[in-house]
Every structure is written in structure tokens, then in C-alpha cells.
Amino acid sequence: xxxxxxxxxxxxxxxxxxxxxxxxxxxxxxxxxxxxxxxxxxxxxxxxxxxxxxxxxxxxxxxxxxxxxxxxxxxxxxxxxxxxxxxxxxxxxxxxxxxxxxxxxxxxxxxxxxxxxxxxxxxxxxxxxxxxxxxxxxxxxxxxxxxxxxxxxxxxxxxxxxxxxxxxxxxxxxxxxxxxxxxxxxxxxxxxxxxxxxxxxxxxxxxxxxxxxxxxxxxxxxxxxxxxxxxxxxxxxxxxx
Length: 241
Ligand SMILES: [Zn+2]
Ligand SMILES: [Zn+2]
Known about the structure:
Elements: H1 4-17, H2 37-42, H3 66-70, E1 77-79, E2 82-83, H4 86-97, H5 104-114, H6 116-120, E3 125-128, H7 133-139, H8 143-155, E4 164-166, H9 178-185, E5 189-191, E6 199-207, H10 211-222, E7 227-235
Parallel strand pairs: 1-7, 2-7, 3-6, 6-7
Antiparallel strand pairs: 4-5
Bound molecules: zinc ion (2 copies).
């Protein structure tokens, strides 16, 4: 068990080996920060006027966007601090597709910091939207589970493994229509009976149309989960474009 003094020594050594760098452009930084100054000014946050259920930007008379109004989602609310644009999108791409599992920790800290208000009333148990086993073997890490573990560490929560699994392989959602996205992920997930009665916070990197999140939430409800909320790093603005 490291003592506080050798924890700071260890941190010092790690910072020498891996100096702090910008999450988006990887430029080495003189002090610990998430982004360099240039990237920081280009970061876009989700606007305050948005759907009260899924955070889609816009002013909606009922409080809910048309998608949530017509098909109420199987979760109480979904939120993300950032728009899926610019430096945040770049950071997620590096983390997910460019073999940078070490970005989980700073991204988890960034999410804890930026989603502070949302997290105050959010469930204490985190569930990552998992990769299929074959994709996990290819990538060697499940980025969402690493992100959930880092967020759990930063917020004093738990992120148990095994409550949710992806039992059917799906193609990437990028470029698919909304209906095709829903078909692609239908019945792709199975939840453990251990989810029964639990209040859970689903974690993913990006929320786009919510099709994947809906499929995961359906599986958790089928296993008896009592209450579900969703937090992602970024939100793609899917109705306004
Ligand atoms: Zn940068
Ligand atoms: Zn909505």
C-alpha cells in the first residue's frame, strides 16, 4: 500500500516518463492540464437549452425533443458535457482507435470535473457499454470499461464488470441511418441477473441517436434494473444536422 509520500514520488517519476500532454493534439504541456491553450479555446460544450431527457440541443415546447417525445427512451436522462466536435472529438478518437488506453484516466477526471452537477444526483454504480469479445481481442482494451473505471475512481463510485455484455457483433454505427442504427444494435446486449433492482449509470464515450444506449438499457431493464441514467463524454447533435 503506497504511503502519501511515495505516491507523490511515484507521480513525479510518472510525470518525467509521461509528461502531461494535450488530450487532443498530444503537445507536451508545462503544467498538468487536459488541453493545450489552443485546443482549450476550441472546446465546445453542450448548450444549456436542450432536451431534458437526452440533451439534444434546442428549445422544445414539451421540454423533450421529438425523438424522446415520440419514443420515450428506456432511461430517465442522458447527458454529456461536450459537443462531439473539435478537440474533444479528436481526444475520443485517439483514445478509442489510436491505441491510447492511458487516456482513460485523464478523460475520466475530465468527465468527473465537467459533469459534477449531473453526477451529484446520478446513480453510484457505473456500467460501461461493452465491446464485443472479438473487437476486444483486436483492440486489446475496452475503452469504455477503462473510462468507467477512471470515472469511478475520480468520483468514489463503483464500476463492476459483467453486468452487461455485448452478445451479438454489430457493425459500426457511423454512416448508418437512424432506423438502420436501431436495427443494427437490437438485441445486441444481455444483462446479468445481478442488475435486478439496481440503480445504474450507463457510461459511453459518445451519444449520437441513442440507439446503442437504448438497446443496452432495454437489456438491463429486462434483467430487472430499477433505474437507469446515461453519461457520455460527448454528444453528437443528431437532430439539428
Ligand atoms: Zn492541443
Ligand atoms: Zn431527447
